[in-house]
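Each letter names a residue; the fold follows as tokens. Both lines appear below:
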Amino acid sequence: MELVGESEKLRMKKLEELSKSIET
């Protein structure tokens, strides 16, 4: 279960980076 939470955190980080790239 913890593994799933970590993978979700990684996905959120990637999404944040993507949104930042689009903003720039």
Summary: The CA atoms of residues 4 and 10 lie 10 Å apart. Residues 2-23 form the longest helix (22 residues). The chain has a mean pLDDT of 88. The chain is about 90% helix and 0% strand.
